Amino acid sequence: MEQIKQFIQKNMDQIRYIKKEEVIYSPELRWYCEKNQCGMYHQTWVCPPGVGSVAALKQQYISFPSAIFFAKTFHLEDQFDIDSMNEARKTMNTLAKQINQLILENKLKAKVLGFGGCDICNKCTYPLEPCRYPDRALPSLEAIGINVSETALACRMIYYHGPKTVTYFGMVFYE
């Protein structure tokens, strides 16, 4: 686990080592998914409804005693700079995939949560066939019902850094 901690410390701006009890779940977040706010609802195995129910996912993740909650802030040209926001999201997805790869290589009992829908395959097999890469596909914090803003507040992390920034959060649950 030390290698993962070092990787996160090197690549993230904010890091908190927390207990599973400090993670705040809000099942009502699924309302945003059901309204298809990000355009990924019913599109992939890591987004609702394919990812499963919040209750079942919570049970899966609370089986891990600890978590690393982390964030990285990116600066934008202006507060409506969608291109830079998308590039930042891609950067965070790449970092999450690298963390997951370290977990897989070291055969650790840990799971990483990513940032938005999966982008491994050009076309997801959902719902017709099983996921091609279930060990590499990363659900987002929100998809499993974690309230990122409330958890950040409880962990004394800065959620909003100003109008010309975007901050992405992630988490690794581990034993």
Summarize the structure.
31% of the residues lie in helices and 17% in strands. With 175 residues, it is of the alpha+beta class.
Structural class comes to alpha+beta
Compute the number of helices: 5
Order of helices and strands: HEHHEHEHE
The main β sheet shows up as: 4 strands, antiparallel
Seen as an oligomer or otherwise, the chain set is single chain
Please explain how this structure is put together.
This protein is an alpha+beta fold. It has one domain. Helices cover 31% and strands 17% of the residues. The chain has 5 helices and 4 strands. A 4-stranded antiparallel beta sheet has the order 1-2-4-3, with helices on one face. It is globular and about 40 Å long. The mean pLDDT is 93.
Features of this protein?
alpha+beta; 175 residues; four-stranded antiparallel sheet
Give me the secondary-structure topology.
Layout: H1 2-11, E1 14-19, H2 30-34, H3 54-61, E2 66-75, H4 82-105, E3 110-113, H5 148-154, E4 165-174
Antiparallel strand pairs: 1-2, 2-4, 3-4
Helix pairs in contact: 1-4
